[in-house]
UniProtKB/TrEMBL annotation:
It comes from the Bacteria. The chain crosses the membrane at residues 20-40, 52-73, 79-96, 108-129, 141-161. This is Integral membrane protein. Keywords: Membrane, Transmembrane, Transmembrane helix.
Length: 194
């Protein structure tokens, strides 16, 4: 730097802190958001062969918040009917759960719950990314759908980690975390004590 020049205050001007490209930032943010939605339901589905109600309720809360925001702004913005339908799926699951007799053992609700959770997470990733990230529409199509693909991949990996939890977790790990022990978990002390 020559005398009289002011130092560059941007992150790219600092040693060791390169500028993060906006497409990486948008794709990574979208993928991370989707991952937060899908990993735990997929893991519990693998470990317990069930998706816990709190996972479905969290998905319902996010979908309903986006739905209500769209309804509040329906005069200013146009939302495609497919988006409305997808955002209503978690509410449909709740209505079906309320109307189906619990004592009759309607097992189809479990499969609908799994489908709603697993299929809605990537769609919500796409929809929320489109709404919340200003750079998202500027990304090439491959990168936009790449974030959804990453969400699906994390869901599949989380399911497999849940299915094969006995390879790296013990029953005590589930106990310590306040969860029930899944069938087939490994005996032994919690992972942190090994």
């Amino acid at each position: 730097m020559e005398s009289g020049e002011t130092p560059n205050p941007s992150p790219s001007g600092k040693r060791g802190l390169p500028e993060i490209h906006s497409s990486l930032r948008a794709t990574a943010t979208a993928a991370a958001g989707g991952t937060l939605v899908i990993w735990w339901p997929a893991f519990t589905f693998g470990a317990y062969d069930a998706i816990f109600f709190d996972n479905v309720m969290a998905l319902w809360a996010v979908a309903t918040a986006v739905l209500l925001a769209g309804l509040a702004l329906h005069r200013q913005v146009s939302v495609p009917w497919g988006s409305w339908a997808a955002l209503l799926l978690p509410s449909l699951w709740i209505v079906l759960g309320m109307t189906a007799p619990i004592s009759k053992g309607f097992h189809y609700l479990h499969y609908f719950e799994v489908a709603v959770t697993i299929l809605s997470a990537p769609y919500l990733t796409w929809l929320l990314s489109k709404i919340l990230l200003s750079d998202y529409d500027e990304l090439p199509t491959a990168q936009r759908f790449g974030a959804v693909g990453i969400t699906l991949l994390i869901g599949i990996l989380a399911f497999l980690l849940g299915k094969f939890n006995y390879l790296f977790l013990t029953c005590a790990d589930f106990d310590v975390s306040g969860n029930n022990t899944p069938p087939g978990c490994a005996k032994g002390p919690p992972y942190r004590l090994r």
